[in-house]
Design a protein that fits this description.
- By secondary structure, this protein is an alpha+beta fold.
- It has one domain (4-151): Thiol Ester Dehydrase, Chain A (Roll), CATH 3.10.129.10.
- It is built from three helices and six strands, in the order H-E-E-H-E-E-E-E-H.
- The protein has a six-stranded antiparallel beta sheet, with helices on one face.
Length: 152
């Protein structure tokens, strides 16, 4: 449904922090995607050289990026909180991480999503992610410019 070119257009993240390779299905309530985990990922050099494992925080980030891709709109999200995050099994080079996010509550901010990361149909990570909409880009840029002016 979304290829890598469209994902790069929608997300500000770039390699090595771009952690969704494909969106395969999307409805108003749910989105599915994939992350192809390769031995070339830079974090495997130190986590851990003799038995590489994808860090849990990056598993969570991949689920957050999937939410951003589907519901983030023009400005995207800030990760506001995480609840009940559970790491069930290791994700290693060669795995295809199948990502899923389902909207739990989008009536008012912050919004809540139930997320899963699976490998070969078995849950590797699950949890609830809580997000807030980001401010429009122009106000962020002017805020950064104001900070730079204040520093000088």
């Amino acid at each position: 449904m979304l290829d890598s070119k469209e994902i790069r257009r929608r997300l500000p993240h770039r390699y090595p922090m771009l952690l969704v390779d494909r969106v395969t299905e999307a409805t108003p309530e749910r989105v599915l995607g994939q992350k192809y985990v390769t031995a070339n990922e830079p974090y495997f050099r130190g986590h851990f050289p003799s038995a590489p494992v994808m860090p849990g925080v990056l598993l969570m980030e991949s689920m957050f990026q999937l939410i951003w891709l589907h519901w983030g709109g023009e400005h995207g999200f800030h990760l506001y909180g995480v609840k009940k995050l559970k790491l069930r099994r290791s994700v290693i080079p060669g795995d295809v991480l199948e990502l899923e996010a389902t909207a739990l509550d989008m009536t008012e901010e912050p919004w809540r999503f139930k997320c899963y990361g699976r490998v070969e149909g078995k849950v590797a990570v699950e949890g609830e992610l809580i997000v807030r909409l980001r401010a429009p880009k122009c106000s962020q840029e002017s805020s950064l410019e104001q900070r730079e002016v204040a520093k000088t």
